[in-house]
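Support request from a user on the community tier.

User writes: "When I paste my structure tokens into the form, the page sometimes reloads and wipes my input. The last time it worked, I copied everything first. Here is what I submitted, just in case something in the input itself triggers the reload:"
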């Protein structure tokens, strides 16, 4: 006769197998496909997982999202469970930040894990597992890369002194030299100069991983340059930009 405690251990082990992201499946015989998603810190980001069954008319029973931690997939981050449910769904969030992440199951053919305000710490490899009533279990990996925008722009004159608001006064015929540093963020940012809204210099360079620099040189200043608006713009993505302007005094 098998001891009662031993029976409980066996049942618990079988339950772990049922929710393991490494459940045996024909798809696991080869490397799982990876989708790459790039996001900007502080904005919304979505990770897709296809829930279309291979057997016509089949239904989804379970969707699990995991995050790779040191090469291992542990407790699910989010689950959509229809096993044993007659109406509605059962959502289980295994993280304390429930108000920042949600699962959208209405965006067919995907079950989308939404980060309402994605953070740098959210970067990493995620795995989605979909169990069907008849179709084979499907696995999908999503590599999330979070870009952190730059957070500061500063100006320096030809002597290396910080300036703001206005630079000058200069004499007619003088040469203006002003440096723009775009600071913070990851990866490195651009640093582009504009004069009265017109792009005049894109020759920026990376000083450190968190500092990009563009030194603007304007020869032969004229009276027409009085009050010109010089703007330096920095960005490392196509969704956010940081600007700082200074006015030229002649």
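"...and here is what came back when it finally went through:"
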């Amino acid at each position: 006769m098998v001891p009662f405690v031993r029976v409980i251990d066996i049942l618990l082990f079988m339950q772990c197998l049922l929710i393991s992201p490494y459940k045996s499946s024909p798809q696991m015989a080869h490397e799982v496909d990876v989708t790459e998603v790039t996001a900007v810190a502080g904005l919304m980001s979505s990770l897709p997982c296809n829930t279309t069954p291979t057997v016509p008319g089949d239904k989804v029973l379970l969707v699990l999202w995991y995050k790779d931690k040191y090469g291992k997939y542990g407790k699910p981050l989010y689950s959509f469970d229809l096993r044993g449910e007659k109406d509605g769904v059962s959502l289980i969030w295994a993280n304390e930040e429930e108000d920042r992440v949600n699962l959208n199951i209405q965006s067919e053919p995907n079950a989308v894990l939404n980060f309402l305000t994605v953070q740098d710490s959210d970067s990493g490899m995620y795995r989605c597992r979909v169990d069907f009533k008849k179709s084979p279990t499907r696995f999908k990996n999503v590599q999330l890369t979070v870009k952190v925008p730059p957070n500061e722009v500063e100006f320096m004159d030809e002597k290396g002194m910080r300036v703001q608001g206005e630079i000058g006064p200069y004499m007619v015929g003088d040469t203006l030299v002003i440096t723009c540093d775009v600071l913070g963020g990851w990866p490195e940012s651009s640093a582009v100069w504009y004069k009265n809204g017109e792009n005049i210099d894109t020759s920026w360079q990376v000083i450190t991983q968190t500092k990009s620099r563009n030194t603007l040189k304007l020869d032969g200043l004229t009276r027409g340059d009085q009050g010109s608006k010089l703007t330096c713009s920095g960005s490392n993505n196509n969704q956010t930009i940081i600007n700082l302007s200074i006015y030229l005094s002649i």
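Agent notes: The reload is a front-end session timeout and is unrelated to the input. Residues 1-30 have pLDDT under 50 and may be disordered. The radius of gyration is 27 Å. Escalated to web team.
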